[in-house]
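Ticket #4471: structure output looks truncated?

Reporter: J.K.
Steps to reproduce: submitted the chain below (120 residues) through the standard prediction queue, then opened the result file.
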Amino acid sequence: MRGSRRCSPPRTTAPADSAPPSPLPQRRSYTWAAEIAGAERLTGALEVTELAVSPHARGRGLAGRMLDELCAGAPRRWLLTSTQAPDAVRLYERLGWRRLNDGPGAIVFTWDMVAPDVNG
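Returned output as attached by the reporter:
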């Protein structure tokens, strides 16, 4: 089929001379986020990859409602946001997400309903 990509399944075994494979994809900022949060915290958790509200619609609670709907039923979740997005940082903090670092460039936030005390 023209224009399609063939996807390979993730590697489940490691070569004998290497570390075991990561349960997280090896693209984007996963490795960096796992160093900050710990792979065990991110593995199996819902990842919020993108959340955007048009500037003219901000301040109406839409982002919080979208997160509530998206994350409903997910006891563990995480996301990354830019240090250059102070409105987003304030939103996640106001909603109770736990900020794990101060950059550089990105901030890792987590939410864990299983152990609420880790949310701050």
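Triage note (M.O.): checked the attachment and the full token line is present. The chain is about 25% helix and 15% strand.
Status: closed, working as intended.
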